[in-house]
Amino acid sequence: MLTYKNSGVDKEEGYKSVDMIKQMAVNTYSKKVLNELGSFGAMYKLGRYKNPVLVSGTDGVGTKLKLAFHLKKYDTIGIDCVAMCVNDILCHGAEPMFFLDYLACGKLDAGVSSEIVKGVAEGCLSSGMSLVGGETAEMPGFYNEGEYDIAGFAVGVVEKKKVINGEKIKEGDIIIGLESSGVHSNGFSLVRKLVTDLDEEYNGQKISEYLLTPTKIYVKPVSKIIKKFKVKGMAHITGGGLIENVPRVIPDGLSAVIYKDKIKVPEIFTYLQSKGVPEEEMWGTFNMGIGFIIVVKEKDKDKVMKKLSKYGENAYEIGRIEKGDNKICLK
């Protein structure tokens, strides 16, 4: 007799996984969540907004997951997944509201899945979001046993008149960079070509452990800055580095002039470059130590950096806005 379990899908393990995950999700709930896990859809009350604009973002963790598989350490990649989504919607001034995740695997292990979602819940708490739902898909024969994929979806809200999109950026404005926590979650297909021994020692630990450091979530400090100052533009520095992400918020006729010698490049990037990567490729692939940028008026820059420091962020001036045909210029 052929059953679903015989074909490779263990429903009981799925039920066990849900039971282990449920309380983690509930711990992230705000009063705006109107129903519990288990419904066909999550319900969330917007609250008091005159002209609300919903801002959404979706992303995954990419091949950084390979390091988690290697170390059998799964409790941080969920943070990465949240960070990749929520830092994006933050760029438009959105207040994060809720998050959903999608976890896929070949054979479900409730212990592993709960560790992954533990990281998702931690990321949601760090960004003030509610983890309102998700999906776990067990697909035997599609994924290798022991391997997982994770993706997420974040939704935030902002008053229409307070949307930040870069259109008010002007010549003379200052670009402030916020320090990254390392490589974050981009460029790992290249990293894995360069680092062939994931167990090699790096700064007193396995290099795979160091590289697994989760992506920094910038929501709480940056949200405070948005409320206190006129922020003109923001960018989350992900795949493509500063070169590809900063121009997304720069108006035509202006150029973000960034001085490379002002950026405190972490040693990990120098190490990766020493493996044979051209400098231009490094700057066009990795964040190089800057995970997020904020564009403000020159008169506000010192106050903004002082506040960011007070909020625990290492932030400093990395460039300015000038007239130009190229939306970014690295000098």
Automatic annotation (TrEMBL):
Species: Sebaldella termitidis (strain ATCC 33386 / NCTC 11300)
PurM-like N-terminal domain location: 52-158
Pathway the protein contributes to: Purine metabolism; IMP biosynthesis via de novo pathway; 5-amino-1-(5-phospho-D-ribosyl)imidazole from N(2)-formyl-N(1)-(5-phospho-D-ribosyl)glycinamide: step 2/2
Keywords of the record: ATP-binding, Cytoplasm, Ligase, Nucleotide-binding, Purine biosynthesis
Gene name of the record: purM
UniProt xrefs under PANTHER family: TRIFUNCTIONAL PURINE BIOSYNTHETIC PROTEIN ADENOSINE-3, TRIFUNCTIONAL PURINE BIOSYNTHETIC PROTEIN ADENOSINE-3-RELATED
Family: Belongs to the AIR synthase family.
EC number: 6.3.3.1
Annotated Pfam families: AIRS (PF00586), AIRS_C (PF02769)
HAMAP family xrefs: AIRS
Protein name, as recorded: Phosphoribosylformylglycinamidine cyclo-ligase
Catalytic activity: 2-formamido-N(1)-(5-O-phospho-beta-D-ribosyl)acetamidine + ATP = 5-amino-1-(5-phospho-beta-D-ribosyl)imidazole + ADP + phosphate + H(+)
Cellular component annotations (GO), alphabetically ordered: cytosol
Single GO term (MF): ATP binding
Claim: Nucleotide-binding is one of the keywords in the record: yes
Database matches in Gene3D superfamilies: PurM-like C-terminal domain (3.90.650.10), PurM-like, N-terminal domain (3.30.1330.10)
Matching InterPro entries: PurM-like_C_dom, PurM-like_C_sf, PurM-like_N, PurM-like_N_sf, PurM_cligase
Residues annotated as domain PurM-like C-terminal: 170-326
NCBIfam families (alphabetical): purM
